[in-house]
Amino acid sequence: MSEQFEPVIVGFLCNWCSYRAADLAGTSRIKYAPNMRAIRVMCSGRVDPQFVLKALRNGADGVLIAGCHPGECHYVNGNIKALRRYTMLKKTLDQWGIEEERVQLLWASASEGTKLAEKVNSMTEELRELGPLRWHEKVLADNGAAHVPVKEA
Amino acid sequence: MTENGKPTLAMYWGASCGGCEISVLNIHENILTVDEIFDIVFFPCIADFKYKDVESYPDNYIDVCLFNGAIRNSENEEMAHLLREKSKVLVAYGSCAYEGCIPALSNLTTKEATLNKVYIDNPSIDNPKKTFPQTSTQMPEGELTLPSFYHTVKALDQVTDVDYYLPGCPPEPPQIWAVLQVIAGALTEGKELPPKGSVVGAGQTAVCDECPLEKQEKTIARFYRPYEINPDPDICLLEQGIMCMGPATRSGCGALCPSVGMGCRGCYGPTEGVEDQGAKMLSAIASVLDAGDETMEEDELEALIEEAVDTIADPSGTFYRFSMAHSILQRVKNGKGEG
Lengths: 153, 339
What we know:
The structure holds 2 protein chains of 2 kinds.
Chain A: E1 9-14, H1 18-27, E2 36-41, H2 49-57, E3 62-67, H3 78-95, E4 103-107, H4 113-130, H5 135-144
Parallel strand pairs in A: 1-2, 1-3, 3-4
Chain B: E1 8-13, H1 19-25, H2 30-37, E2 39-42, H3 51-56, E3 62-68, E4 71-73, H4 74-86, E5 87-93, H5 94-99, H6 111-119, E6 136-139, E7 142-145, E8 149-154, E9 164-166, H7 173-189, H8 256-259, H9 277-288, H10 298-309, H11 315-319
Parallel strand pairs in B: 1-2, 1-3, 3-5, 5-9
Antiparallel strand pairs in B: 4-8, 6-7
């Protein structure tokens, strides 16, 4: 039997809320899926869409962007910009055939360790369901032929 | 270099429209100087050379090769390798060779869908036997072959080593002339060439930098399609809600399109140091989109932003119109555009 697929999630967590939520989840000893690789950014507004695309290209199965709730941004409206970018990116990725579960946005304040842990759990399950993205092997390999579904007779 | 001591010039097309060839001829009377300086040794658009002529040249025989067009099929790739072998300086000339351009928009769909569109579902096509081009066909006289059609359109530097990039769809005549002068200077007078891998014949900044329209730091409430609005000729088009790729596009064209009320399409590619032009544009738009602020409830905010973003028709086709092959993901996963 093959082993269970463990998706890789790259998590961009904002310094002021969501990274602290992850910290809280840790100090509160909340158990959650170990699939997220956390990257601390100063603000969710710092997440350039290029970061997300690069993560997906280079082996991530999903990307989670997490920031402060609207109205609570340390930099007033960085998270609003993040939401606009995310909304636009989602629409673009849909055209690229990338399932919407693969890139998600979450508002988690410093006190919401549980919320962050639950999100990582649910996202891990969703990605497990979808299967690996493996952009290099499954989409670009063999001159892009690899993504073509085999036609059933 | 030929026997008469003149440096040699070649120009070849991959998947292209022919506009790049015309742009070289569009340098007006300077074309006579080009002919004086260079010996043209391969240029299918204007002179009758054959592939076997190129094959017969010794390696590095061609001093400068301007390669335009994307890599769409095996013939394009074969010629890219051959010309690389025979050329001292290989220039990815024009947006297709540089970053895929219009041919690479088909990376938004599948090879099957592209061929279907061309050979079956086209109003002007009558193909009852559903004939598709085959790479090999047996005829009484023998085997006929055609190049194979790739799934993914590539830029020149994705199949071979490239020395310089000259962006534009097509490149602007003064820029072409300036580049040819630099190269000629290097070949005939021993002047220095720019560092390998440089983008030549273009600026370092964004198109906005050379755009004459007035920017007022305004934000955008929604976007309009060109037919929906009559633009004010003096004010930044983006601020009027007309999609303009200026902020994410390399300068060098002199902001020709925005100057006459047409939003920049983005043909000069990403600005210096940027990998993915589309992602940068998306990012820039998000910063100026005037939808929602920090005082709103989360649901209301999301709905408002969604509505504003929905006024952008075909974001992938707009943001990646010229740079699909060179974008980070390069092609779509499963061809949603099919059908």
